[in-house]
Amino acid sequence: MKIKVIMTDKAMDRATMDLREDMLSTALSMGVEISVDCIKKGPDELDCNTDEAFAAAELVKEAIKAEKEGFDAIVIYCFSDVGIDAVRENVRIPVIGPGETTLAVANMLCNRFVVITTESVNIPRTYRRLIRNGIAREKMTSVRALDIPIGEIRVNPQATAEYLKAVCKKAVEEEQADGVILGCLGMASYGEMLEKELPVKVLDPAFIAVAYAEMCARLGLAHIPAVYPPFQNLSHVEL
């Protein structure tokens, strides 16, 4: 089995993507191959709705390529699930969005959860998107920010850990949160540290998404044409 993970920005170098493959493979069964790649054009980071719009078209192209190359499932490596509906219209293999998948897990395991994003400027965009989801409307207490740029998260893990601990501690004290969702996949792998120090369940969308992708591929759990009619390109867009 092969799983393709598509980064929603073009700025990550090959060495860093190789490290992502090693990290994510720990959530998969023996023998499952994982391949991480960036989009080829589009934004360097996803900081706003405009960035997401430009990334979405490239994600569709990369997904079509991945299916042709024989991958069994696709993970869109962004908590915003950028372009997920469009991607599903263009491929028949499972397409996993870390955001919607993690919210489903939070519904099962948490009573009150907080979502952590990178910078305060992202809070309105993240909140607006999440509040459309019934699970978030019922159980999400807030969206909080680390106020660390996405690029800084990748290069300064100690600062990221300290900021995460402080923000999560406030959520527990002020909102009685029992769950934390790491709302940027650049925060992957900090969950174990947080759970040792705080009385919360930390949900890490990066690992949840790839593990769920494997399960979907094994069980044939993919979207169907009745829900996502295949794109016919009657509008003559470039693919």
Task: Please explain how this structure is put together.
- The strands form 2 sheets. The protein has a 4-stranded parallel β-sheet with strand order 2-1-3-4, sandwiched between helices.
- 47% of the residues lie in helices and 15% in strands.
- It folds into 2 domains: 2-97 and 208-219, 3-Layer(aba) Sandwich (Rossmann fold), CATH 3.40.50.1860; 99-204, Rossmann fold (3-Layer(aba) Sandwich).
- The protein is built from 10 helices and 8 strands.
- β3 (73-77), α3 and β4 (95-96) form a beta-alpha-beta unit.
- α2 packs parallel to α3 (84-90) and α4 crosses α10.
- With 239 residues, it is of the alpha/beta class.
H/E series, N to C?
EHEHEHEHEHHEHHEHEH
What global shape is seen? globular
CATH class of the largest domain equals Alpha Beta
Low-confidence stretches: none
Main sheet properties: 4 strands, parallel
Integer count of domains: 2
Widest sheet, order of strands: 2-1-3-4
Report the CATH topology name of the largest domain: Rossmann fold
Averaged pLDDT, please?
A: 94
**Helix content range:** 40-55%
What percent strand? 15-25%
Helix segment tally = 10
The computed structural class is alpha/beta
Number of strands: 8
- First-last Cα distance: 26 Å
CATH architectural name of the largest domain? 3-Layer(aba) Sandwich
Cα radius of gyration in angstroms: 17 Å
